[in-house]
Amino acid sequence: MRAEVLICGASFAGLAVARELAGSGADVLVIDRYEIGERQTSACACPTRWLEAMGVAGSIKQELPYMTFSTPYRTARYRLPWSWSSFDYRTLCAALWEQCTGVRFETAKVESLGEPTADGSLSVITDRGTLHSPLVVDALGWRRVLSSPHYQPPQAPLSRGLEVHPDSDHSGDALDVFVERGLARRGFGWRVPAGDEARIGVGSYDPSQHVKRETVELAERLGSEAVKYQGNWFPHRLRDATGDNVFFVGDSAGHCFPLSGEGIRTAFYFGIACGRELRAVVANESDRESALAAYGAFSASHGRAFRIALALQRIVPALPPRLLTGVLAVVGLQRFVDRAFGWYLNQAPPEFADSATRSGPGPSEPLGAPLAGAAR
Ligand SMILES: Cc1cc2nc3c(=O)[nH]c(=O)nc-3n(C[C@H](O)[C@H](O)[C@H](O)COP(=O)(O)OP(=O)(O)OC[C@H]3O[C@@H](n4cnc5c(N)ncnc54)[C@H](O)[C@@H]3O)c2cc1C
Fold first, then answer.
1. Which of 64, 264, 265, 269 to mutate to test the pocket of ligand 1 (most atoms within 8 A of CB)?
2. Measured from the CA of 162, which atom of ligand 1 is nearest?
3. Region 177-202 average pLDDT
4. Closest residue (by CA) to atom 3 of ligand 1?
5. Coiled coil: which residue ranges (predicted)?
6. Helix (H, G, I), strand (E, B), or coil: what is residue 239?
7. How far is CA 283 from CA 23, 120, 148, 197, in A?
8. How far apart are the CA of 263 and the centre of ligand 1, in A?
């Protein structure tokens, strides 16, 4: 019932943290209510370079070098300076887990944080008993289970998404985005080609708007059957990445980008940052307080990018559709596309996975000098 590091959540964020602790010699335990890779939590599209950097390129189902943006009036097609890839969730999780040498896994449903013990360890209450650890990570997703109170829709700053996964014929080389008020008054629709299937869905920034009818309509319009539903909430506001001595990573820390709803890359990115801090603690090069402070500051240093994205999330749906169509045509000039998408990728760049830095500077600053013991 004890572990040196307890990682709650075995999806993108939790496995990225665990991967950084592989071979550290520490007793690291990962828990999740499901087996690793059992429940897909997204449309599973991620920048290809991130999948390569994480050593999980074998999970790629289809590379998508283009994006299209459709309004009721026009479709703009952009060639990106980098590509997306859709991947198979189960294969990706297995490939991450394979890299987590020496880490243990158990299934358990996490209920809440209990009272700390006399030696300063935290207590995590699960349906299989109480676990104790001095270093606890909440990578449990949008609800932020280990905080009190949890985040609860529809009051919390959360978006909602629903998608279907019909069969597909390998056609399409673009991640398609549909910005139409008929689908979501404040939100967007998408189609992610993934080899023999497509992931078609609708997301609403307004958590009180249901999106089932709209998802079915979009699938039918694209000539696909509305089958194999999958839906979830996702945060659109950055939260504190630490609290009550817990490290929060991924959706639990609001690391999903507003506007795009992209949260896999950032779960990897902040998961790596958190894992490096924890690794320094278990190597006796740092302590919990310093690690919490450094990781919290690293996450907060990205606040500006998250605020810009949140402002755009508010502005874009308010634009009259004809004006939006004009804007999309102008920003479709290749040099704008390269700059805008280059900036966007740089907010959580794939090089971070290879660098050996502990979490220090934000994305626009040069990466600091490697710290011994923090490297993988
Ligand atoms: C419909 C939809 C499509 C999306 N598509 C994309 C996309 O294509 N690309 C992209 O980048 N982002 C996408 N997102 C956002 C993305 O899914 C999230 O940002 C991402 O999954 C966050 O990763 P995470 O590891 O923090 O959390 P999650 O992936 O949500 O993982 C949380 C883990 O914790 C476990 N868990 C939760 N509660 C408990 C509990 N009480 N006890 C034990 N275990 C628990 C879960 O089983 C899960 O394994 C999409 C979101 C939605 C809703």
1. 264
2. 1
3. 96
4. 42
5. none
6. coil
7. 11, 18, 31, 45
8. 8
